[in-house]
């Protein structure tokens, strides 16, 4: 399973933009010893988020699932708010940001990266 969006993914993401803010849901499954690499990534992402007006809303380790499909194996969840889908796209296109994405890629075995929009928007 890929863990990073492709150019085609980003193009579709922007073309389906309903407008307004977006909260990106990140479900993360670490590779063996990947948690420390992912924490390095999150330690370094702050300036890139600030530059586009984004912010981490929540980050935490996942615990006992109460209702989940068999094989549910996510290790952590991260919610990041951006003022727009364009802001997210701008951040991931930043050449300096791309210098740290290797930490994320190396850390993850599987991931879900999904946009959400606030209800009523």
What is the structure about, briefly put?
40% of the residues lie in helices and 26% in strands. It has helices spanning 7-15, 34-52, 85-93, 95-98, 101-107; strands spanning 22-30, 55-61, 76-82, 108-116. Helix 2 (34-52) crosses helix 3 (85-93) and helix 2 (34-52) runs antiparallel to helix 5 (101-107).
Folded structure, characterized:
- It comes from Aeromicrobium phragmitis.
- InterPro entries: Dimeric_a/b-barrel (IPR011008), DUF1330 (IPR010753).
- With 121 residues, this protein is an alpha+beta fold.
- It has one domain: Alpha-Beta Plaits (2-Layer Sandwich).
- It is built from five helices and four strands; from the N terminus they run H-E-H-E-E-H-H-H-E.
- Strands 2-3-1-4 form a four-stranded antiparallel β-sheet.
- The model has no long low-confidence stretch (mean pLDDT 93).
SSE diagram, text form:
Blueprint: H1 7-15, E1 22-30, H2 34-52, E2 55-61, E3 76-82, H3 85-93, H4 95-98, H5 101-107, E4 108-116
Antiparallel strand pairs: 1-3, 1-4, 2-3
InterPro entries: Dimeric_a/b-barrel (IPR011008), DUF1330 (IPR010753)
Protein name: DUF1330 domain-containing protein
Pfam family, one: DUF1330
Q: State the share of residues found in helices, binned by percent.
A: 25-40%
Distance between the termini: 31 Å
Q: How many β-strands, per DSSP?
A: 4
Named CATH architecture: 2-Layer Sandwich
Shape: globular
Low-confidence stretches: none
Number of domains: 1
Question: What's the arrangement of strands in the largest beta sheet?
Answer: 2-3-1-4
**If you average the pLDDT, what whole number results?**
93
Pfam family, one: DUF1330
InterPro entries: Dimeric_a/b-barrel, DUF1330
Protein name: DUF1330 domain-containing protein
Organism: Aeromicrobium phragmitis
